[in-house]
Amino acid sequence: MKFLDRIMYLNFSLLEKISKFIRNDKCVICSKKTHMLPLCSHCNNTYLNFNYSAKRCSNCGKILVSEENICTDCRENPVINNIYKIIPMFSYRLWNKELLFKWKIQGYRNFAYIFAKKILEIYNEYFKDYVIVPVPPRPGKIKNQGWDQINDLMNFLRKISNIKIVNLLERTESVQQKKLNREQRLANKDSYILKKKYLNTKLPSKIVIIDDILTTGVTLENCAITLKNAGINTVGAITVYIAD
Fold this sequence. Notes:
- By secondary structure, this protein is α/β, with parallel strands linked by helices.
- 36% of the residues lie in helices and 14% in strands.
- It has 2 domains: 1-47, no CATH class; 52-242, Rossmann fold (3-Layer(aba) Sandwich), CATH 3.40.50.
- The protein is built from 10 helices and 6 strands; from the N terminus they run ααααβααβααβαββαβ.
- A 4-stranded parallel beta sheet has the order 1-6-5-2.
- Helix 1 (3-10) packs across helix 2 and helix 6 packs across helix 8 (149-160).
- The chain starts with a helix and ends with a strand.
């Protein structure tokens, strides 16, 4: 990571105010100057605009186009049974696919700051006073790649809020979820476990899980099962994207 990027990561809110004097970047969508953020304000508001008024599936949080309360996927192939509310912020379509690719694969780490601010808004609207539990990375990912997108999100959330964030879970298998089909994911029920240091401690009663994208729902469901088996009463979830 470049020296300036290291400073940015440590104190982004300060640099966001003074960045126009020290650096000029371009919006990854329209190429307008953005100084330090990967998106200009227009593209940020256009492509990352959460729809509060939309009617959503009561199970997975997908925006509905019918009068049903549950989407077709959740009616025909239910996966999620242990999460009372899921709020996916944005649809994984069109430019949003490119944004996620740039963040996760190409390493545009300053997207985490943008997404952290969006997550904070959703948290304050739907999950006030819940404890945040991030979905953990696969074993060895941070050591091999040097970073993890969810870990970055949590670090920025800690800097811009006083929300309690606890890394309760660990992942037991190292295979990337995207390389598994739906049946393989469903069979991987023990892929997330409670960390040993929390086995004999008092856990919060309300948890909201944070992940980058909801695809089949198996990751969130497996995390929720582990948390409920540990004695947690209520589990919610926020994801940046949903593959709908």
